[in-house]
Amino acid sequence: MSSVVAQSLHVFGLRAHVANNIFFFDEQTVMFPSGNHCVKYNVDQKWQKFIPGSDKSQGMLALSISPNRRYLAISETVQEKPVITIYELSSIPCRKRKVLSNFDFPVQKFISMAFSPDSKYLLAQTSAPESNLVYWLWGKQKVMAIIRTDIQNNPIYQVSFNPQDNTQVCVTGNGIFKLLRFTEGTLKQTNFQRGEPQNYLAHAWVSEDRIIVGTDTGKLFLFESGDQRWETSIMVKEATSGSKSLDIIQESESLIEFPPASSPVPSYEQILTASNYSQLSMPQVFTIAAYSKGFACSAGPGRVLLFEKIEEKDFYRESREIRIPVDPQSNDPSQSDKQDILCMCFSPSEETLVASTSKNQLYSITMSLTEISKCAFSNGGHLFAAVNGNVIHIFTTTSLENISNLKGHTGKVRSVVWNADDSKLISGGTDGAVYEWNLSSGKRETECVLKSCSYNCVAISPDSKIIFAVGSDQTLKEIADSSVLREMSAYEVVYTAIVISHSGRMMFVGTSIGTIRAMKYPLPLQKEFNEYQAHAGPVTKMLLTFDDQFLLTAADDGCLFTWKVFDKDGRGIKREREVGFAGEVLVTKTDMEEKAQIMLELKTRVEELKMENEYQLRLKDMNYTEKIKELTDKFVQEMESLKTKNQVLKTEKDKQDVSHREHIEDLLDKQSRELQDLESSNNQKLLLEYEKYQELQLKSQRMQEEYEKQLRDNDETKSQALEELTEFYEAKLQEKTTLLEEAQEDVRQQLREFEETKKQIEEDEDREIQDIKTKYEKKLRDEKESNLRLKGETGIMRKKFSSLQKDIEERTNDIDVLKGEQVKLQGVIKSLEKDIQGHKREIQERDETIQDKEKRIYDMKKKNQELEKFKFVLDYKIKELKKQIEPRENEIKVMKEQIQEMEAELEHFHKQNTQLELNITELWQKLRATDQEMRRERQKERDLEALVKRFKTDLHNCVAFIQEPRLLKEKVRALFEKYVQRADMVEIAGLNTDLQQEYARQREHLEKSLTTVKKKVVKEKELHRTDYVRIMQENVSLIKEINELRRELKFTRSQVYDLESALKLTKKIRPQEAPEAVPSKESLSVSPTMRLNEQEETGRIIEMQRLEIQRLRDQIQEQDQVPGLHTLAGIRLPSLNSEMDFEVETR
């Protein structure tokens, strides 16, 4: 199987602990963090786009978007190192613009960020104990200024730029409100705090020099240029039952708006007088957002207040209160936000939701168990398993009866899973045990215990043979027959969840760092998987949909991701087997009565059609027998005509063979005589030429002696001149050698001086290099030692800090757990009392329903007996009809065998015709070859005659100069160069080169002509092949039509069968109305019509085959008239009975 690819599709959930975790990208799109992604969500069109976090990220800490909505800054911790990543939102998809990861100042994480108004600068606040405020020119990764904002390790919540000034910033925290200005490369504080310090949670700039600040005690402060100008307090009013009827509530689509208060700021006296009608509490102001008319601030859970500026004064008044509505989809909207859901699971039918809450509820039914941490429906949906500590309870879905309790784990059970047929349950726990339970006996069948591993999740293969388990030992285990077959490393992470597809070919695992890994199954031997960034916490649960198309993942960060599953080519995963449909159909009594009436009418129609079909079949059989006789006579006549034609072709071929042999023998005799004549004439000419050659050789010897005498005289004069020249040049050479020796001595002196200066320079440079090297090695050694010492100290401090932080977290968690248990126990007491009353009412109702069902079962048994009797009668009638059809089928088989024999004979004749045509073409080729050889020999003869004539004339011209030896010599030499080649000098008795060249040229011409003929033959074959392909395509289209008609026939037959089976039901339900009735003529008229269409189609196929045979016969005659061409060999006529085979088999 190809590798598996998962693509994030949708996500539910938001990370609440990320600073500045929601903002608008445009008018319809909001952005928020979810898992390890930043999500762009279009409110109108409901689509989501994902901006993934960095690889191996431990989660996002803070977000910030630039004022021009072009850049997004994300603060993360990657492998225990802080990183700020800046994305460009204008590109699609969003790409990383800058990554700020190398810092020359101490930092653990960045908890708040802000862009400047021109989006060029970035402000980032680090966490305690450093508490540094960093001012960046982020485009060049340059730190412009850095300052420590707090020295008492108080938390800092927010930093921001002045919306009109790049150089002014604001910082708020616990007891901290500072205005800073960037001047001369540093950040300097411009305000001084007066009065009692507050825990400032949030702030917002409402103008160039004004800031609204909110506290944890519900107070709002207005600061102008660092000085306090205005103060107000926020109260949460929970209206009593008497005052609710007086309020006018205006509901919008997603918000509930309350009318504004009569006064902008309630005084102390007003608060006291209103105490009789409301209960007051002081909310915390966690966030403030400014807009054109004023600002909005949070005022407790689910409540937002809008403040508008008073025109006459520089203060603000409360103009509107907005409340988030309760969840309308909740079972108890008033209590839905006061209970915790621990676990949820859908049944396979998706009609029932099991939810485990802090009040121990299963949907709308209160359960009697407490602390249910895991639950799982069986594949059939009739059972579900609930985990309580180390015990697994099995319940029925219909009656909620506890049918079994599985005990055996010594630690908490972390995961349970059902096998395919719901006969077994597999569980894994923190005690390192994986058990396989048999639900019929309630006992363990297999077990695999490994104390060193605490299992987080288990899964089972679709064939229920192999169990997969993941745990704290950073491995994935394959378990079978109580033993571990194989362990696959998780590569330095802990697997927390696992799921295998229904096809058993792919697997997904979740890790402790929030990533999802997709791998093939069987598991690869090497590190082969695709890893995706998903969540910001350990993955707790993973599920695949029934069709393996979507993957759902949930994690500790409170987010639910939906993934689309593909293969590596982008195709969706296909299921190997589809879910089967149920055999039962629910219908009403009136429908059954109408169906029974229709069945009676159809039965009468069926009997009428049977009689009509029998009569039509007899007529068709008679017609077909006559047609078959006519066809056989025609085929026999055609076979005889083809035989006579083949005989005529054989006789013609024999005659042509005899004539060709005689012609070739005459040519060979003539050629041998001509060769003898040529040899005799050439021998005489050669003798004459040899005599002339002897005379010329004597003359050349005399001339050579004269020339040798002249050469001797020339050598003597030459030797004297050489002696004189050598003496002159030797004197000059002596002078030049003396000058050269003097120049070489000067060069040697200069080389010695250069070597000495070079040696001195090299020694000086070596000494300087050695001194510098020793100096810097010493510095490097000192720096390494100090670096190692500092690393050790930082490691020790980090360990101490992490251990102290863990202790604090454990203590706070213990306190929270104890408080939650106290609340749960109080709720359990009330819920148990309600359970007792509810169960008593249910017992009474179920007793009544059981009695009604028993009565219905008795009535159904009686009806089944009557239907079985009626079924026996119809089966007998069907057998009789089958016996009547069998003789017709035997006759069709006999006719089909006859047609096959005729077709075999026809194919044999086609093969004979093709063989004869091949023989004729070979003879034509041989004839052409002999004609070409004859022409070539004649051309040679003419060339030789012309050559001899030219030689005679040239020789006659030479005889005219016999009295002048010198001219005669030149003419003879020219004659020699003209008619005698150098190859003839080596082998004078060989063949003439002109003849050899002419022979090669003729051979090359013949080869080219042969290739052209072959190409023509191939083209002719292609032409005939296209005709054959066209014929085959026409036959295919006809066969398709036949198959469609057959499918229609099969469908109508199935309808008849269904109607016959339905007749059984009607006779059982209404036996008094089912005497021998006559079928109606309308509903089952399809069957004879289809049968008639089949017979007409068979006749039409036979007629088409006859026309095809006639066309091919005409084509053979046309090709016989054209010499050198032959028809395409191997063409086979379409079978006459191929279209009838399927019909016989289906009958």
UniProtKB/TrEMBL annotation:
Compositionally biased tracts (Polar residues): 1082-1092
InterPro entries found in the cross-reference section: CFA-57, Quinoprotein_ADH-like_sf, WD40/YVTN_repeat-like_dom_sf, WD40_repeat_dom_sf, WD40_rpt
Coiled coil stretches, renumbered: 661-793, 829-947, 1028-1062
Keywords: Coiled coil, WD repeat
One Pfam family matching this protein: WD40
Region (Disordered): 1073-1093
Highest taxon, organism lineage: Eukaryota
Alphabetized SMART domains for the sequence: WD40
Residue windows of the WD repeats: 406-447, 532-565
Protein name, UniProt field: Cilia and flagella associated protein 57
The encoding gene: CFAP57
